[in-house]
């Protein structure tokens, strides 16, 4: 079973990932379980940033993606939303 993506999202990076062939359960730990092993797999991965961006763009809410947990990705999404809102407000003021 492959990863399902929104149409138009590039998934070619997957074939270069460190997690290829690793048990997927490692990246979807039970609530409260350690994420350290999954993050260790991600740490040296050459496509870590692509994986993280994929998860952010695809709205992945569960698991470790790009070496980050759900909570860490929520922080990034929130920060990006604030930055977009600030940019829109600045653009509106200058118009």
Polypeptide structure, described:
The chain is an all-alpha fold and 95 residues long. The chain has one domain (12-94). Helices cover 46% and strands 0% of the residues. It contains 3 helices and no strands. It is elongated and about 50 Å long. The N and C termini lie far apart (49 Å). The mean pLDDT is 90.
Highlighted features:
95 residues; mainly alpha; elongated
Concise synopsis of the structure shown:
The protein has 3 helices and no strands. It is an all-alpha fold and 95 residues long.
How is this fold's topology laid out?
Layout (H helix, E strand, L loop, with lengths): L35 H8 L4 H11 L11 H25 L1
Can you tell me the residue ranges where pLDDT is under 50 for at least 5 consecutive residues? none
Q: Enumerate how many helices there are, as a single number.
A: 3
**Largest β sheet strand count, sense and barrel closure:** none
Give the helices and strands as they follow along the chain. Answer: HHH
How much is the average pLDDT?
90
Rough outline: elongated
| DSSP strand content | under 5%
- Class by helix and strand content? mainly alpha
Radius of gyration, whole Å: 16 Å
Q: How many structural domains can be distinguished in the coordinates?
A: 1
How many strand elements? 0
Question: How many angstroms separate the termini?
Answer: 49 Å
Helical fraction: 40-55%
């Amino acid at each position: 079973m492959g990863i399902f993506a929104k149409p138009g999202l590039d998934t070619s990076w997957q074939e270069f990932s460190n997690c290829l062939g690793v048990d997927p359960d490692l990246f979807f730990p039970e609530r409260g379980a350690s994420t350290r092993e999954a993050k260790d797999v991600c740490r040296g991965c050459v496509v870590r940033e692509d994986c993280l961006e994929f998860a952010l763009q695809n709205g992945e809410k569960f698991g470790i993606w790009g070496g980050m947990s759900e909570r860490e990705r929520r922080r990034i999404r929130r920060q990006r939303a604030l930055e977009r809102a600030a940019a829109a407000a600045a653009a509106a003021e200058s118009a």
